[in-house]
Automatic annotation (TrEMBL):
PANTHER family: 4-HYDROXYPHENYLPYRUVATE DIOXYGENASE (PTHR11959:SF1). Belongs to the 4HPPD family. Its EC number is 1.13.11.27. Binds 1 Fe cation per subunit. Its cofactor is Fe cation. SUPFAM superfamilies: Glyoxalase/Bleomycin resistance protein/Dihydroxybiphenyl dioxygenase (SSF54593). GO terms for molecular function: 4-hydroxyphenylpyruvate dioxygenase activity; metal ion binding. It holds the Pfam family Glyoxalase. It comes from Streptomyces bauhiniae. This is 4-hydroxyphenylpyruvate dioxygenase. The lineage of its organism: Bacteria, Bacillati, Actinomycetota, Actinomycetes, Kitasatosporales. Residues 22-156, 184-338 form the VOC domain. Gene3D superfamilies: 2,3-Dihydroxybiphenyl 1,2-Dioxygenase, domain 1 (3.10.180.10).
């Protein structure tokens, strides 16, 4: 059993060859962007802020931009494919179902970031270029990562529009809840094929200059039936964190195997959303119809013995089915949704951190057993 943590010295951060400002957006390709935007507005409490479609000149795609604090999701569907990008999105949804096609990263200099990435082995997808409107100029470029996922590099310091040129401000679809459900994207998890995890860890080390933050192998993430291995890479400031999972040999099919089968290859498995009040967020989202994984009462019987005091009483955690974990830096609270589409692929995590920069290692067994119960219902275990 191995878990390692690496903290990057400030001097190394100052010399970062690939500086980042944070996650810019998570971009989804979906079959019906209008309906997706409504779901994430009403169920996740997000606010529609920008739109691009036939009404403002986009004849090929319709895109809805939703935000909650610093978290930004973009949902795009194809109206009529007429370019390679439209054809890609159309095919992607047909083959993979609704899913993430782009983990866009905000950078201070998109041209320099692209040049560094390509020089160190990244496959270029879109050369750096400027897009402009009355709100200013954005510089964009894109590189490939695992599966059909891409990283668009976004330089937006000279822009004050609602999202990107070509988008116009939009009014909310529904009135968001009085209290924000979450504030930011905490991390984005990718699933890759057996034997490919270390290859993609090396990609992020070499191409983006990310460091290895944590790793979980062996018995860390295993139950009686299934197992996986995971390593976490992050930029020097820990603003962008990408756990990477691969399946491990076990008695039955793991959640990673199931994802790879139904998604049709590697891709983004789940998005973790940072919240300041996980109890209120879960109450709000559950009342709006979001389904969360269940946790047996027995999990909570001994929780207080090893997790200690938390902001939320154990009995409230039990009632809400929220998990807790503690490490040398503090503790965290977390809960996971069921998949948010018919295919058992993409789901979400809510996480409330109190010092801990971990990923809930103490909960892996309970989480995996909860996922296995859902897999068994689907006939996929």
């Amino acid at each position: 059993m191995t878990q390692t943590t690496q903290h990057t010295p400030d001097t190394a951060r100052q010399a970062d060859p690939f500086p980042v400002k944070g996650m810019d957006a998570v971009v989804f390709a979906v079959g019906n962007a209008k309906q997706a935007a409504h779901y994430y507005s009403s169920a996740f409490g997000m606010r529609l802020v920008a739109y691009s479609g036939p009404e403002n000149g986009s004849r090929e795609t319709a895109s809805y931009v939703l935000e909650n604090g610093a978290a930004r999701f973009v949902f795009t569907s194809v109206i009529r494919p007429a370019t390679p990008w439209g054809e890609f999105l159309d095919r992607h949804v047909t083959e993979h179902g609704d899913g993430v096609v782009d983990l866009a990263i905000e950078v201070p200099d998109a041209r320099a970031a692209f040049a560094h990435a390509v020089e160190h082995g990244a496959r270029p997808l879109t050369e750096p270029h400027e897009v402009k409107d009355e709100h200013g100029t954005v510089v964009l470029a894109a590189i490939a990562t695992y599966g059909e996922t891409r990283h668009t590099l976004v330089e937006r310091s000279g822009y004050d529009g609602p999202y990107l040129p070509g988008f116009e401000a939009a009014a909310p679809i529904v009135e968001p809840p009085a209290r924000r459900t979450f504030q930011a994207i905490d991390h984005c998890v990718g699933n890759v094929e057996l034997g490919k995890m270390d290859e993609w860890v090396a990609f992020y080390n070499n191409v983006l200059g990310f460091t290895n933050m944590k790793e979980f192998v062996g018995d860390d993430i295993a139950t009686e039936y299934s197992a996986l291995m995971s390593k976490v890479v992050a930029d020097g400031t820990l603003k962008v964190k990408f756990p990477l999972n691969e399946p491990a040999v076990a008695k039955k099919k793991s959640q990673i195997d199931e994802y790879l089968e139904f998604y049709g290859g590697p891709g983004v498995q789940h998005i973790a959303l940072a919240t300041n009040d996980i109890v209120q967020t879960v109450r709000t989202m559950r009342a709006a119809g979001v389904q969360f994984l269940d946790t047996p009462d027995s999990y909570y019987d001994t929780l207080g013995e090893w997790v200690g005091d938390t902001r939320v009483p154990i009995e409230t955690l039990r009632e809400m089915k929220i998990l807790a974990d503690r490490d040398e830096d503090g503790y965290l609270l977390q809960i996971f949704t069921k998949p948010v589409q018919d295919r058992p692929t993409v789901f979400f995590e809510l996480i409330e951190r109190h010092g801990s920069m971990g990923f809930g290692k103490g909960n892996f067994k309970a989480l995996f057993e909860a996922i296995e119960r859902e897999q068994e219902k689907r006939g996929n275990l």
